[in-house]
Amino acid sequence: MLSRCISRTYQPKDNVCTSNTPSDELYILLSGALAIVTAEGLQVATMEPVTTVGEMGVITGQPRSATVEVVERSHLLVIQKSYFDHMLRNDLAMQAKVYRNIVDLLSTKLIHDNIRMRDYQVENRRYEGHITVL
Fold it and tell me: Which of 10, 113, 126, 134 is the 20 to 30 Å CA partner of 103?
């Protein structure tokens, strides 16, 4: 699979992909940092190496749910959806490995999202108490 990857380097403020566009590539962040920004302009996460970006859209075929902005110079490997789909259809052992890795990555991302949500709620309650006192 790695032999079919395209190597790309992005500079700060570049967009790797944009919200509501086709999910035609999957990215592997090797170095740098990326920000995940909602369509409303809210940064919801920062991605650091080594991780994948855009895997859900490539698997489901749904449009991008967020914009991925480059925070610091970043090096990514890019896998085209058409090749990704072809490879998984023709190599069941690879399919099992890839899906297992994606499940592991998504589980980790979900755990981190839950921690961020908990931290947000704790901070929100603390500030609500301050506002009530004022």
Answer: 10
The dihedral sign for the CA sequence 8, 49, 52, 54: negative
Task: List, for residues 17-27, the tens digit of each pLDDT value.
Answer: 999 999 999 99
Q: How many Cβ atoms sit within 10 Å of the Cβ of residue 5?
A: 16
Judge contact between 74 and 33, C-beta under 8 A: yes
Q: What is the phi-psi region of residue 5: left when phi exceeds 0, alpha when psi lies from -120 to 50, beta otherwise?
A: beta
DSSP-assigned states of every residue in 66-119: SEEEEEEEEEEEEEEHHHHHHHHHH-HHHHHHHHHHHHHHHHHHHHHHHHHHHH
Residues 58-88 pLDDT 10s: 999 999 999 999 999 999 999 999 999 999 9
User: Strands 51-53 and 25-37: what pairing?
Assistant: antiparallel
